[in-house]
Amino acid sequence: MIGVQDVVGLAAGTLTTISFVPQVVRIVRTRSAHDISWWMFGIFSVGVALWLGYGIMLGALPVIVSNVVTLTLATAILCLKWRYGRDLPPPRYGAEQEPGP
Amino acid sequence: MIGVQDVVGLAAGTLTTISFVPQVVRIVRTRSAHDISWWMFGIFSVGVALWLGYGIMLGALPVIVSNVVTLTLATAILCLKWRYGRDLPPPRYGAEQEPGP
Question: Do A50 and B15 touch (CB under 8 A)?
């Protein structure tokens, strides 16, 4: 029988997991990822992998399922950062436009 | 006595929590947050709050501690997005520069 804490855990895992989808969509739509931090998603991905291990040790299904999906999405964002976030940042208003290196 | 799973949980919580610090630093340093998704950090914050509740129900200290700090950092990013991410995005190379609305 599913208890209240399982429902809360599933809701928590669902929200923190699906939250990455809008970020993926935004990067793909704008083709821009300059403001995304490599360090954040890199360290985050390692942490999520450890959470996955923790969930397996605990036998906590919400932790396991949400972290498998979150790890997939976080890795996707790193790939998109590689694709769209390595260019020179666009110039700001009023700045001289110079050809990039 | 601290077991292996507690060490893994603490490591996981530490990494996923501190991962947000580089993102905060990046936004403050570049004064830019256009590529950050409102939806991602908004939904993520709600999910983290639920994880906090789940951790309290489970009595899982790594879950509780990491999610208090993560919630603080995610909220900070939302505030920084409000501060630095609401302007018009900078023009791209080659685009006509037009005054904003």
Answer: yes
What confidence tens digit (pLDDT) does each residue in B11-54 have? 998 999 999 999 999 999 999 999 999 999 999 999 999 999 99
Q: Do B50 and A22 touch (CB under 8 A)?
A: no
Lookup: tokens for B26:
């990046």
ipTM of the complex in this document: 0.78
Residue (of B6, B10, B1, B5) closest to B65 by Cα position: B10
- Asked if A40 and B40 touch (Cβ cutoff 8 Å), the reply is no
- Closest by Cβ to B11, choosing from A50, A62, A93: A50
pTM comes to 0.79
The tens digit of pLDDT for each residue in A69-90 reads 999 999 999 999 999 987 566 6
**Most A CBs within 10 Å, among B6, B26, B35, to test the A interface:** B35
Pairs of residues, one from chain A and one from chain B, whose beta carbons lie less than 8 Å apart: 157
CA–CA distance, A69 with A10 (Å, rounded to integer): 13
